[in-house]
Amino acid sequence: MRPIQMVDTKTQYHKIKKEVDNAVLEVMESSAFINGKIVQDFASNLSAYLDVKHTIPCANGTDALQIAMMGLDLRPGDEVITPSFTYIATIEVIALLRLTPVFVEVDPKTFCIDPASVEKAITTKTKAIVPVHLYGHAAPMEEIMTIAAKHNLYVIEDNAQAIGSVYTFLNGEKKKTGTIGHIGCTSFYPSKNLGAFGDGGAIFTNDDKLGVKLKMIANHGQSKKYYHDIVGCNSRLDSIQAAILDIKLKHLDEYIAARRAAADYYDKAFAGHNNIKTPFRAPYSHHVFHQYTLVLDGIEKVADKRNELSDFLAKNNIPSMIYYPVPGHRQKVFEHFGGKSLQMPISDWLTERVISLPMHTELDADQLGFISSKVLEFINK
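The structure corresponding to this sequence follows.
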């Protein structure tokens, strides 16, 4: 059996090595390392895949969120609603721009933002909602968009973990996540479902005026070289990363299918176990399984037991991760936003119980069988 990786980017690369190597060599020969033609080609191809008007490549997913909020002209003191149970980047950019993060709960089954909590959190200062498509499961976008329209709020989708996921509306209409809100943001960090060989990100919108503005912000606030109309930043996807991503984009649906097949294997292995809750799949969400995250329940001292399981797996050469051990409202950096006083039982409950197993495109039956058998061995003892 091959060694088990949390994410096996090396084996994935070797399957497309010739394509990737040729694409990178073409960039080297062209010497167009920044804003080369391949960057625009990739943006165009990604727009076509997502069926979105505008794709603005940038340096990373965190920059994508920052540029999105700058593009909406949010001002210091404006409130932005965000789930507490998410990666810190979602919240970090809100604070960085001197906006006020307003933490809300998530659904304990989907791990995504809870619409009822969003509605309760809205005040006269609220300007935007940032739903996160966590672990590859789509947030309840139809409800979120209805709430946003009712209160005249912007919606910025954090799609860093769910590119390629499809959301199905009640009327049967389907849209890719990241293209439903006013702006969508994603990351091309190497471990992502569509991952570069370095950092990268992108912003999406169907609004023509907003598309122009976001592109300007990402490029020093200029639409014409050396003529700067607005305050911007320097956030670019380099040509080599764009070339690699353009190749991998052609395989993205294949990668998603492989992840879903691995998730199906895990689901069957853990089916019916009283202490293991496997990932929920809501009927509106085509889950793309950036992570395969279990919730341990019905166990005494569950946080300790979860950590012991992680140690046990490590001793058997099986990596695992805890995404995320501390929710946003309990992070020291956000104490001045009143996080300590917040009652967020669901987020706290999840942080004690979640554990993510290896999930990537290259998992085989032997690896999946070994991983699941060791999890069950520990839980059943």
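The chain has a mean pLDDT of 96.
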